[in-house]
Amino acid sequence: MYDAAILWDWMAFAVRWVHVITAIAWIGSSFYFIMLDLGLNRNIDGPADGEEWQVHGGGFYHIQKYLVAPTEMPAHLTWFKWESYSTWLSGFALLAVVYWSGAELYLIDSNKADLSIWQAIAISAASLAVGWVLYDALCKSPLQDNPTLVMIILFGIILAMSWGYNQVFTGRAALLHLGAFTATIMTANVFMIIMPNQRVVVADLKAGRTPDPKYGKIAKLRSTHNNYLTLPVIFLMLSNHYPLAFGTEYSWLIAALVFLMGVTIRHYFNSLHARSGNPHWTWAVTTILFIVIAWLSTVPGHDTYEEAEARALTPYETRYASAEGFDVAQQIVMGNCAMCHAREPVYGNMQWAPKGVFLETASDIAGHAKDIYLQAAISHAMPPPSQSRLSDEDRATLAAWFNAAQ
Fold first, then answer.
1. For the chain, which ranges sit under pLDDT 50?
2. Which residue of 87, 104, 214, 262 could cross-link 22, Cys pair, CB 3.0 to 4.6 Å?
3. 213-238 and 147-168 are packed helices; what angle lies between their axes, rounded to 10 degrees?
4. CA-CA-CA-CA dihedral for 375, 380, 385, 388, to nearest 10
């Protein structure tokens, strides 16, 4: 079992790295093509809808866009789909590796909902599809001719899901799931709408038929929606690094406001790319939203020390709290970690526990047994080297306690 925990953590690292790499590729191509489309020079003669000259890497590029399709099928055609698919698949794998396999620690909050592991995982998996079903029905409804209203209603759905996730999952998992919920909509747009529509156009070209422009129009609209959802999803991907965002009872509202910030920022840059003005007001709105988020983050969302002491241990916590060597391990953690990882830190000018991790009570320490094992027993990541007083013997004691519970 000693090796299993390490190997599992390295697998999580590998999947996370793949997710980051593929996300960069998808976001980069998405941003580039939206920028290119908005910035095309359309005051030209010829069959193309617009063109653009660009210089990069020592060369000049001449780009032309055809509104529906060229008159003949090109000999070489590059498709942009695997960036999206790989990002979603790696993200789903990461969700399973971190939050499903570690459901007792990272997913379930018994103070919110007393769920079994399989119930929590079932809710997690099923919820991801809800967004796509509602969003796709919305885009195909009579409201489809009013894209602004569609996005407003979509924001309402996101707000409701953000609140709902926060009622059943930990704050950290709630924000991550909202990101996965939105990313599922984005990838489904590519897989279910954009790519099939492009295949119809290609099939028409091969058959010598004139493609229907409606397919390109629909695909472009879904691509634009994806563009505006990208920045909030990036924040939610990284939200587990920001306890001030997930460690408050208003984390669901913070997540919703982040979506509005994403819209204002993208609108600013899209307006610049389209040469349709310089909407400085977006920065004022973004700043106000950020200030509101910062204020909401100061509202405590965790239990007090007294409440944590009185709370009954979960089965996961009981497993480690009853393991041989826990009493000694608890003393080591309390003497070396609790001054920072406290609900009211006493180290220096620290105001919040790093990453929202508390190590004050028996339930705190038992609940973070794996983190303690990986961060302080196997590696020397914690405590910080400049402040560490952990001896090799102490680290060995922590490792022995963890292994005793396996």
1. 1
2. 87
3. 30
4. 80
Taking only the tens place, the pLDDT of each residue in 223-254 is 989 999 999 999 999 998 888 888 888 999 99
Q: Which residues contact 71 (CB under 8 A, 6 or more apart)?
A: 47
> Any bridge partners for residue 65, and if so which?
50
Q: Amino acid letter at 156? A: G
State residue 187's pLDDT score: 96
Spatial separation of the C-alpha atoms in residues 182 and 194, rounded to whole Å? 17
Task: Evaluate the CA torsion angle 143, 185, 125, 243 in order and state its sign.
Answer: negative
The verdict on whether omega for the bond into residue 383 sits within 30 degrees of 0, i.e. cis, is yes
The alpha carbon of residue 152 and the mean position of all alpha carbons in its chain are separated, in whole angstroms, by: 21
The number of beta carbons lying within 10 Å of the beta carbon of residue 406 is 11
Radius of gyration in angstroms for the set of CA atoms belonging to the chain, rounded to a whole number? 25
Confidence (pTM): 0.85
